Amino acid sequence: MLFLYKLGTYIVVPGIDSSMLKNLTEQGGMFGFANMISGGALQRFSIFAIGIVPYITASIVVQLLQMDVVPKLTEWTKQGEKGQKKTKKLTRYLAIGLSLIQAFGLSFSFNKLYPGVVTNPTIGTYIMISLILTLGTVILMVMGELIEKKGIGQGMSVIITAGITMGIPTTLYMYYVSDIQNAANLFIAIIKTVLLVLVVAVLIIGIIFVQRAERRVPIQYPNQNMGNYRSTLPIKINSAGVIPVIFSVSILMFPMTIAQFFSGNPVAQFIIKYFNYNNPVGMAFYALMIILFAYFYAFVQMNPEKIAENLKKSGGFIPGIRPGKSTEKYISSILAKLTLVGAIFLTILAVTPMVIGNVAGLPSQIQIGGTSLIIIVGVALDVASRVNSYLIDRKYNSFIK
User: Fold this and answer.
1) 3-class SS of residue 63
2) CATH fold group of domain 171-401
């Protein structure tokens, strides 16, 4: 699947002159990040140019609507596997709709930014390009689901990580050309590079530490034969993983794409200017979105109400805490405190490289490297833990040595 994904990033959409987009890699902000997570597909305007961002946006919208906003959707969350199938179906349809809007906006805005990208800018051409880009998103959705079903890890996250990883050699080469080959003082350039490598190493260690760190809440179960049986409920510092970062990027990209339709409008100009995280306002909004989504997804993942209900049904309890509502409040309190630490850490990790990059005058690809680093390391840890669990599951120790 990843090989086919890489192949697809080189299939240029008909009616597009991709040579006009050679300078896109020099752009920072949302276009630079979108190009990076697509594995360079945006720069080549391939069939995977808009990637799986519409699907992620659709997932966010559906999950928000399921939080007692639309009763029918909330009811689906209580229907088990049947409800999950309905939710996935709705998410897919919504993703296709968003893909069409984003694809049209992308082709229209790129032709304005780089005149001549669309070789024959007629309505028919724009419709054809939009349909092809939407088909590309549908293919990636299918790939993601197949990776999740037949492979290892969360399919969508694995595809995003693959896209970012594909762009690493280009980023390193650009850094070499701009900061080492063309450096006025080679010694200072080497010192700067060594410090940068050390910062990256510290960030990776920090990500691993926070992603694996957890608080274990003691659980006690009554057992007639063995007395009280003790267990633990692990609550991670960052229960949401890399999802808040991916969600935040998707939310920032969508209004900017729509704003390109109305680039002459003052409101659209405001969105284009301030929703870019090269701008301090856009950076602050990006940081706020990460914190909000960290809380949202942590409580969706853990759901203290369900945990308290399941413990009560199984006869389990937290020592010193009454079953039911008190247990729910206790778990919610711990989850909220831990998530605050995890969310702040994610925000610092995503924003700090941008600030350092602006101060040190690093290429835009290095400036947005913090976000990429979170996604790559987070997904790598998830895949590693899944591989480990598969190995343990298939390991058999004989009674006779």
Assistant:
1) helix
2) Preprotein translocase SecY subunit (1.10.3370)
